[in-house]
Design goal:
The protein is globular. The strands form 5 sheets. Strands 4, 5, 6, 7, 8, 9, 10, 11 and 12 form a 9-stranded mixed beta sheet that branches. Strands 16, 17, 18, 19, 20, 21, 22, 23 and 24 form a 9-stranded mixed beta sheet that branches. A 3-stranded antiparallel beta sheet has the order 2-13-3, with helices on both faces. It is of the alpha+beta class. It contains 10 helices and 26 strands. About 20% of the residues lie in helices and about 30% in strands. The two termini are about 25 Å apart.
């Protein structure tokens, strides 16, 4: 049987892949250091510019005053980071002389039999994924398929948790075991971190300007005299800069699913039908989430927060993890506690249950000293009810603002805390809304919202079945689109026969698969009024 399928509509148009809205870039023609530019962008827009493609680069260059030919700060700072957005830990396993980053594109990390090596990110290699979806301790998996680093990162994020991140000698041994003695494979290392802690492997270095393997902190500037190519500069130089903002979603679209499932099954459902289990960034997000829940429901429901393998310091306000600015006292943090106070112009970790004065932050007003002693959790609740949140300190300027409020020698809580949880969609921001005593008094490693407790969160057993909240575009995987096709059997078959229709459908599905658009797409024939799919079209 010789069947030829002619698609009258392009498959890529019919099953169109949705594209995200472009970020707006804003050129600020005021000379500041990189850190001052970062603070300005965060206060006025979202952050210093993150660049994801040549399309972004062209829009960046177009935003700059055409007469300006100097350097312009963007949001990239030099150092190696993990693909999860974390800074590389004190542990490393670099081969002697590595990393040397002697190329003009992004340098990415490879596990070789000798240790870590930096390669061109476009090199085709196997990769090591990490999966902690069913086992909190996680497992490493070698994927024996050649990919670029970016393809590997995407693959691991879609099918597992992420590319493998190595934090200690034990994890390194596990990676060695899965990779073996004769193979090299991508792991989750890339040079350079964006100010907003977002992930983009795109780099546009001028020749000879890829980051050096020195400990000197450098920041990326776009050179307008060299077609916008990037150079590494001393971060305290004064340059104009580019912020981004504008089209960031103002809120997530939440969906209540009143079908009790375990956390893992709820996650799978949300990823198939929407985007993921709910991620929450703010008090405003919590309000939107609670409004999505059926009236009268007062039980628990799953959201996308799960205990992580590595704790990270983050700010209560949730706008970022601990930034490149830190102000720890000598020998701190030392494990004294999981919350932070500032005294004598430095930070110290401390027991969260101790009662201290604290500093709140209010949008549009600034910092407010509250001279009432509360433990860190109660101070957080008070600041969120009365102002915006506990104070974040992300620059020397902000540290001075807080210090000026405090009586010399006084100790006050600020919003920094040790966070041991991670969102299902790998979002790095650290807003948390725990109930009193949680999560330390919880019974598990997955987070649930308790509607009967004003939406406060608890740590619950991941195997318990709860309703849950997803986020994302509604029914994004179930959009119905009609495609017309013309088929010819050369008179050798009746195309309305069920087995022939099945063969045709199978051929179309193969074409979708070859074009990378088969994931989640379900095809079926549409019957006409005569009960048939195909109508004979006379030859002209």
């Amino acid at each position: 049987m010789d069947l030829n399928v002619f698609l009258l509509l392009l498959l890529s148009a019919t099953f169109g892949i949705s594209s995200s809205a472009l970020q707006q870039f804003y050129y600020v023609n005021v000379k500041k250091s990189w850190l001052e530019a970062q603070s300005y962008c965060r206060a006025t827009y979202i952050d210093l510019a993150t660049v994801g493609s040549m399309e972004d680069m062209n829009r960046l260059k177009a935003a700059v005053d055409p007469a300006y030919t100097g350097a312009v700060w963007i949001g990239l700072k030099k150092h190696w980071v993990l693909s999860t957005g974390e800074n590389i830990s004190a542990y490393n396993n670099w081969v002697p002389g590595q990393p040397n980053e002697g190329n003009v594109e992004a340098a990415c990390g490879v596990q070789t039999p000798q240790g870590w090596h930096d390669f061109f990110c476009s090199t085709m290699l196997y990769c090591v994924c990490f999966d902690d979806r069913s086992d909190p301790s996680g497992t490493f998996i070698l994927i024996r398929s050649n990919m670029t680093w970016t393809q590997a990162q995407t693959y691991c994020s879609q099918h597992y948790t992420n590319l493998a991140s190595v934090h200690n000698a034990q994890e390194q041994q596990q990676v060695f075991t899965v990779v073996g003695n004769n193979t090299s494979a991508w792991i989750g290392l890339i040079s350079g971190q964006w100010s907003d802690k977002g992930f983009s492997p795109f780099r546009y270095w001028a020749n000879g300007q890829a980051p050096e393997s020195t400990s000197t902190e450098k920041c990326a500037a776009m050179m307008m005299s060299n077609s916008g190519k990037w150079t590494q500069s001393q971060c305290d130089l004064q340059n104009p800069f580019i912020c981004y903002g504008g089209l960031q979603p103002l809120f997530r679209l939440y969906h209540f699913v009143n079908d009790p499932k375990t956390w893992t099954k709820a996650q799978t459902y949300c990823r198939n039908r929407f985007t993921d289990l709910a991620t929450v960034d703010s008090v405003k997000d919590m309000s939107s989430l609670m409004k999505a829940v059926d009236l009268g429901y007062s039980g628990s429901l799953w959201i996308g927060l799960k205990q992580a393998t590595q704790p990270r310091w983050g700010w209560s306000r949730g706008d970022e993890l601990l930034s490149n600015f830190s102000n720890w006292d000598a020998g701190r943090p030392n494990g004294t506690g999981q919350c932070v106070f500032t005294a004598d112009e430095v930070w110290r970790d401390y027991d969260c249950t101790v009662a201290l004065y604290f500093v709140c932050y209010k949008e549009g007003t600034g910092y407010i000293l509250v001279e009432t002693s509360k433990n860190w959790y109660d101070a957080q609740s008070y600041c969120r009810t009365s102002y915006t949140d506990l104070a974040s300190i992300r620059s020397p300027w902000e540290q001075k603002q807080v210090t000026d409020l405090v009586v010399k020698g006084g100790s006050v809580w600020v919003g920094l805390f040790l966070d041991t949880w991670q969102w299902s969609d790998q979002w790095s921001l650290s807003f948390r809304n725990w109930a009193s005593g949680q999560p330390s008094s919880g019974t598990g490693s997955c987070s649930a919202v308790v509607m009967g407790d004003s939406g406060k969160w608890i740590a619950d057993d991941c195997n318990v079945q709860h309703p849950f909240i997803c986020y994302g575009e509604e029914d994004r995987m179930k959009k119905k689109q009609i495609m017309k096709v013309t088929v010819s059997s050369n008179g050798k078959a009746d195309v309305n026969e069920p087995f022939v229709r099945a063969a045709l459908l199978n051929e179309i599905e193969k074409q979708l698969e070859r074009q990378g658009m088969a994931n989640g797409t379900k095809l079926s024939w549409r019957l006409g009024n005569n009960g048939k799919v195909f109508t004979l079209k006379p030859e002209r």
